[in-house]
Amino acid sequence: MGRPLFYEILEKPATSCIIGICSVIWFYIQKKNIGYHHVGLSYETAVEGHHWRIITSAFSHISVIHLVFNMSALWSLGIVEQLGHLGLGVAYYLQYTLVLVVLSGLVVLGMYHFLIQRFKIEYFRRVTAVGYSCVVFGWMTILSVKQPSSKLDLFGFLSLPISFAPFESLIFTSIIVPQASFLGHLSGIIVGYAIAWGLIHGMTNYWAVSMLGWVAVVFVFSLKHSGAYDFNFLEIESVTDPSLPSLRFIGNGRTLQMSTIPVEGVEIV
């Protein structure tokens, strides 16, 4: 007889929280009848400035089967939180989950851009991706390098050797679920190997919190800029010098003007 679920939740606190967040978001999407095109990530929407979709697409699931498959795999991969002796653990898990969410989204957009611009495949301009699969595939890859003796358990009865799980799952999902995002899953594998091989390293709590702060800023301002959500308390306007942006908080009449010091050889993008 297995251990009570309560104790496993205590041993995988970050994984349990992420599963809870994804489940609540799925319930909200179903209740509000929100479609994948409202929260998903595509090249076309990214070009239009909907950068917030990198985050919403990762945590959104439209199909309950999609949700169950991803969360089942994620629960098994939560063993990363218990491998502190290998340099992993809860902090490592949270830090690099953030990296996987952001970078896998950027990598898949880069792939779309290459296929559209180099090979003129316009199909990828409107392909919309949703789901936590990119992060799941990333952790599969990291664990296959860090702990190759582990196994990936799916649905409580299907067990795969973790050393082959990333590519086995990539092929399996592409065959069984034709609409699955091959490039989205592949982007997670690419970023996963970059982390596991030390190409992306040095994340600390300080850098993770800093990165999270910048992600939050970009998220809010891209929502505002794209018109997807109207933040009535926040308005960007020009004052004094039209070339300098200002930030105005409506209600108390305060206006903050930002200035820049020109630096030779540097462009602000």
From TrEMBL:
GO terms for molecular function: serine-type endopeptidase activity. The chain crosses the membrane at residues 12-29, 58-80, 92-116, 123-142, 154-175, 182-200, 206-223. Its main location: membrane. Signal peptide: none annotated. It is a multi-pass membrane protein. One of its GO terms (cellular component) is membrane. Gene3D superfamilies: Rhomboid-like (1.20.1540.10). Residues 49-200 form the Peptidase S54 rhomboid domain. It is found in: Membrane. This is RHOMBOID-like protein 13 isoform 1.
